[in-house]
Amino acid sequence: MQSKSHFIRQNTGSLVCWLKFLCNCKVIYSRGADLLTKADRLDDAIKLLEKGIGVVPARANLFALYQSCAELMAKADRLDDAIKLLEKGIEVPAMTSLSSLYQSCAELMAKADRLDDAIKLLEKGIGVPGMTSLSSLYQSCAELMANANRLDDAIKLLEKGIGVVPARANLFSLYQSCAELMAKTDRLDDAITLLEKGIGVVPADQRAILYQAELELIGRAGDCAKAEQVVARGLAAIPTASGRHKIAETGIRVLSSCGGPAAVQRLLNFGAPSQLDAQQRTLADYSLAHISGDWQKAFEIVHQGHEDFPRYGALLFSEADARVALGQTKEAYTLMSQYVERLRQGRDNPVLWLKAFVSLIAGHPEEARSLAATFVPSDFNPGIALDEAEMLRLWSAAQHGLNGPVANNFPGIAEYLRLNGSQASKAEESPAAEASGRPCVLAVATEWHSAHGGVSTFNRELCRAFAKEGYQVWCYVPEASANEIAQAKQNDSVTILSAPHECMPRLTPACATVPTYPPGPTPT
Prior knowledge:
Helix content: 55-70%
CATH class of the domain at 277-429: Mainly Alpha
Strand content: under 5%
Mean pLDDT: 85
CATH superfamily of the domain at 277-429: Tetratricopeptide repeat domain
Number of helices: 26
Shape: globular
Largest sheet: 3 strands, parallel
Strand order of the largest sheet: 1-2-3
CATH topology of the domain at 277-429: Serine Threonine Protein Phosphatase 5, Tetratricopeptide repeat
Distance between the termini: 92 Å
Radius of gyration: 26 Å
Number of strands: 3
Structural class: mainly alpha
Low-confidence stretches: 4-9, 11-23, 423-436, 501-511
Oligomer: single chain
CATH architecture of the domain at 277-429: Alpha Horseshoe
């Protein structure tokens, strides 16, 4: 009788072929499920993937079958089954890309209004020894904490992650996210200091993103002189291959907004090693032209620049923006159509918003809706008509509510709105304008955050539900902090109204009066 070792030696080739076959099974099951889904055979696709889960080895990218199957279950309104499947996958020994399953499961839990469970699951994943892709777990968990109005906890979690995640493992993303949340809680100086620290820690090829984030926050603070210094330092430190052009683009935009043409001209005058490259000099010249109000000249500059550098996206987008300013919406749409194949980032991507807006005004509303839903999936409401005012509201909701005015990014669209006398242009200036034509609701509660649970939680969730359905919602409470008011507005589209100060610490007749509303429509 042959020994086991002798048998293995004799049949190594066959064993290798068998292992390769099992690994390739994953692709076969995935492709089969795709074909069944396209043929509207969703149940059959789910069954096929479930069968594959029982066959494919854990180390052969089995996680992808779990994710695909759960995604189809959710699509078939089997959200609980999808969550249970992913929870099962998380417990499979030797599973690769485990962090992906934690994230997918947490996303579905949040979708099923199990936000606390989702946060706990991600916290569990963060604590798993040897877990890879830790940065993405920290980010996802912090984002859910922020959605649960736990901004301070989210910041602390990201600060913890910054001290744990290796510099090469996308540590820059934690610095960026933490700074954004700090800025959202009015800790702008802390956010800028954190980003400066991050620039000195992360690898050189990842620093450009942090320079961009720092410039954005300095621009919000209105410190134009400091912005110029950061642009000069970033351009000198970052090589072309590591995103130097992104620092220049952000610098041009921020400086034109806070310092006007003089600041842009100083940027053009930078000498080595901070001088602008030819493509960014064209963008700066374009900026000077549109600041002067000469949109025809601005268009000619950027159009020539796009012809000279056809592969440079910023010039393509700027030409589309200039065409919008000149009323050439169809031509702008044709230009932006070139961007679809190159689309990499969806959520919060300003260029995606630009394409959505251009699609809307060029007569392609369904395409605009699809793009807008990708831009801000958590804030997009399919029950609300997508018009120019709603597009501006979505712009304001992105980036944790930190986006500046549209005119800073897309001055051509601002000019288009001005020339067309659009009501949308007023929506950006007056929060009340966004409620025009929408039904209004006033809720009265003892508190916004559920310190006591019960009815308070019900009232808050009721307000959120009305807001998601397109209602303009106010919640009248005895007392609310500035942080609560800001979070409710930014995260839930609910305006909190505090009772007069004289109502505290005990109820008085003043509390029984009708609250003072912001300008605009009021509940009746």
